[in-house]
Design a protein that fits this description.
GMP Synthetase, Chain A, domain 3; 21 helices; binds acetoacetic acid; 31% helix; globular; alpha/beta; Rossmann fold; ATP binding; 662 residues; seven-stranded mixed sheet
């Protein structure tokens, strides 16, 4: 039910008249003679007239002054759509195109430190020096440069320098275990490894030099290590002793001899490789292209999130989550991007908000789990900190409990525009999210993003209105993968998105699209709960269970048994001092029965010490389900890619001990 008490935020004059999307609508009227009464009408046009919409984005953002093209969409089949043949543009060049003296390009904060500004001029100079160094190492189109780096200014510089020379970038955050990093980077076959000596997190320093040596040993294609010695400086000490590998110190790189030259690459030239979470098999290397990413991030951040040049845009993320790339996309808008290298909960749970205060961040991106944790802490950031500059929060990763939507508006930053966004690595962007033209209501993503032909489908491919179905995208997007790494015939790519509905992208989430176009995502469809033929999203259960003050975290899975039975245990982490006794079990079951349905009541409610998650915060529903079905821990998760890996062994023991018929 959606009543007015659910309304948290409504567009004001700034949004309806001064936002980027308002300017876009005016521009469509004057330049194209197109008028739309509301967001819904604009979205319908944008997701059906693809050449019309994407050519409008192209012109509105001035790309026609950069390059021409033969056609907008030469082939619209999925997979394999052909966008903007004939166009040539370089992501790095576009990121540096709006350099200005007026504002910094980067504001960098190390955990416990003070913010440091890097000007656009300085950023361009550093990109030029590193690009020149890469060219001296013989790196160019067809090569890969890999980063083993935390969220440092050097990481942004290395990405832009790699793109500038036309090579492919990929990164793993150093908090990943070495086997996980190797499972990814081995596939990418990097020629150069850019690595930091360590990182700081939660008040501790982690030395990673030995891990870098191990990586170099495991990556026979690496010829050069570009070493960032910041925490443990020992410039003359090579980290790897492997023959044939040269180590260069980042801080000692010579200045470039000439101006920065950007490789002139076609629209679909590979830009970077992003990695799937790798919790259900070998991580998939998702390759996205220069043109598709430029266009998508201009549209998503500009027309969707209303990012502007004067914004200071912070995302709390490691370099392994696609939102880091989504953060760097802020440069395309001439915005200042804020890089925080550290834990959002250091020195206390409000660490991230302190960084926002220190840096004057105007738009802050966070994972849902972090927001919920701050809510639970009982602190009142709005009273303790000056978040006056903050205008918008981007929330993603998983669904937000209803209470947290309200808490953000009441206690974190009253008046702020909370944008819940859903998309992912696969497109490095947003499928559904906020719009300056749409109100924000509790529990609802305001609408599908422009250009995204999003729908809910039933198993036979029929669209569902106001009912939960598979999230599909029925028309191509420019940032869809060019291909996967090591997938020459595209079989892995097709199997990932196109096996259920040939020619239509199945994203792997359960979604409901309401008549007002608002969207509710109810969890991953590959971890669906299916009781007696009724499908239920795990997120619905979490939303109820995690509202109880005694429950800190939870995980639910539905296990098909060999005997045809179905077992649906709910695992809960209780708050200190709240044992999971019969009383609490009954309160949980009663809340689920009342707020959802008797069918949602779990078969067992079991205490656990922690919920294992991917390093980007997603609960490990599918791996746990598979363990409960008898899979070996090592077959369903890759070491170092999950939090609380010890819990996977716990689930294996539980499967042996407590599963019905087990
Ligand atoms: C934008 C997103 O969808 C991010 C994520 O959940 O991985």
């Amino acid at each position: 039910m959606n009543t007015d008490t659910d309304l948290l935020w409504s567009p004001g004059r700034r949004e309806t008249e001064d936002s980027n999307i308002a300017s876009f609508l005016r521009w469509l009227g004057t330049d194209r003679g197109l008028r739309f009464d509301d967001y819904a009408a604009l979205w319908r046009w944008s997701s059906t007239d693809l050449p019309g919409f994407w050519s409008a984005v192209w012109e509105f953002y001035g790309l026609d002054a950069v390059t021409g093209y033969d056609e907008v969409l030469a082939d619209s089949s999925m997979p394999g759509a052909t966008w903007f043949p004939g166009a040539r543009l370089n992501f790095a060049e576009r990121c540096l195109a709006r350099a200005t003296d007026a504002r910094p390009a980067l504001v960098c904060v190390a955990e416990g430190g003070t913010p440091e500004d890097i000007s656009w001029e300085e950023l361009c100079r550093q990109v030029g020096d590193v690009a020149a160094a890469l060219r001296r190492m013989g790196v160019g189109p067809g090569d890969c440069v890999a980063g083993h780096l935390p969220n440092l200014p050097q990481t942004v510089v290395a990405l832009l320098a790699t793109a500038a020379v036309g090579a492919v970038w990929t990164a793993c955050s150093p908090d990943f275990g070495t086997p996980s990093v190797l499972a990814r980077l081995r596939q990418a076959r990097p020629a150069v490894l850019v690595a930091a000596d360590g990182y700081r997190h939660g008040g501790k320093e982690y030395d990673r030099r030995a891990d870098v040596a191990e990586l170099v040993d495991g990556l026979p294609t690496v010829r050069h290590v570009l070493a960032i010695d910041r925490l443990f400086p020992a410039p003359d000490e090579p980290w790897s002793r492997r023959a044939g590998v040269a180590q260069h110190s980042w801080s000692a790189l010579p200045a470039a001899e000439g101006p920065l030259v950007f490789a002139d690459v076609p629209f679909d030239h590979p830009l970077w490789i992003l990695w799937s979470s790798g919790t259900t098999g070998v991580p998939k290397g998702i390759v996205q292209g220069h043109g598709g990413i430029v266009l998508e991030l201009l549209k998503a951040l500009g027309l969707g999130a209303d990012l502007r040049a004067e914004d200071r845009y912070l995302f709390l993320t490691s370099t392994s989550w696609m939102v880091w790339n989504f953060l760097v996309g802020g440069l395309l808008h001439g915005s200042t991007i804020v890089l925080y290298d550290g834990s959002p909960t250091f020195p206390d749970v409000n660490g991230a908000w302190r960084v926002a205060e220190q840096t004057g961040a105007t738009m802050v991106g966070v994972g849902a789990a972090y927001l919920a944790a701050v809510e639970r802490s009982g602190t009142h950031p709005a009273a303790e900190l000056d978040l006056g500059a903050l205008r918008s929060i981007l929330q993603t990763g998983s669904s937000l409990p209803d209470s947290t939507w309200r808490w953000v508006h009441e206690r974190l930053a009253p008046g702020v525009w909370l944008q819940s966004i859903c998309g992912g690595t696969d497109i490095c962007s947003v499928l559904a999210g906020g719009s300056p033209l749409l109100p924000v209501r509790v529990g609802r993503i305001p609408g599908p993003s422009l250009g995204v032909a999003l729908a809910a489908w039933d198993p036979s491919g029929q669209p569902l209105a106001g009912e939960q179905g598979e999230l599909v995208v029925t028309a191509p997007l420019p940032s869809m993968p060019l291909h996967f790494v090591d997938d020459p015939d595209g079989a892995r790519y097709r199997a990932s998105y196109f096996d259920t509905y040939p020619g239509v992208w199945r994203h792997g989430d359960w979604v409901t699209v309401h008549p007002d176009l608002s969207v509710v995502v109810s969890g991953r469809s590959d971890s669906t709960l299916n009781r007696m033929g009724v499908r239920m999203g795990s997120a619905d259960l979490y939303a109820v269970v995690e509202q109880l003050p005694e429950v800190m975290d939870s995980l639910v899975v539905g296990v098909e048994r060999p005997d045809g039975g179905y077992f649906m245990p709910l695992f809960v982490v209780t708050a200190p001092g709240s044992p999971l006794d019969d009383g609490l079990r009954e309160r949980i079951a009663a809340a689920v029965r009342r707020r959802l349905s008797p069918r949602h009541v779990p078969d067992a409610i079991v205490p656990i010490a922690a919920v294992p998650r991917t390093l980007t915060g997603k609960k490990l529903e599918v791996p746990v389900k598979r363990i409960l079905q008898g899979a070996r821990v090592t077959d369903v998760s890759s070491a170092g890619a999950v939090t609380h890996p010890e819990m996977l062994t716990w689930f294996a023991d539980y499967a042996g001990r407590s599963m019905p018929g087990g």
